[in-house]
Amino acid sequence: MGNLGAGEILVILMLGLLVLGPVRLAVVARHVGSMVRDVRRVAEGFQEEIRDLVEDPSIEALARERGRHLTVPDGAAPDRPTEQDGA
């Protein structure tokens, strides 16, 4: 559960029990649990989409082709920026 320890979770549950009562605390906990599940599903979907895009062969070929145009030939030093006078 992230960076929450057992003691911190216990304090949160005790505060929830005092503020909401036992019945409402159970309802709220169920609702929060379903929201967390939904958020995780959406995040996993995004990760899967990104993974599919990165592993797409046509995109890999395009990246390799573009990369060839951006690389400096062996033995050649790239131009270094010069400082402007008075800057």
Automatic annotation (TrEMBL):
Region (Disordered): 64-87
UniProt topology in membrane: Single-pass membrane protein
InterPro entries cross-referenced by the UniProt entry: TatA/B/E
UniProt-annotated location(s): Membrane
GO cellular component: membrane
First-listed, main subcellular location of the protein, grouped into a coarse class: membrane
UniProt record, GO biological process: protein transport
Sorted UniProt keywords: Membrane, Protein transport, Translocation, Transmembrane, Transmembrane helix, Transport
Name listed for the protein in its UniProt record: Twin-arginine translocase subunit TatB
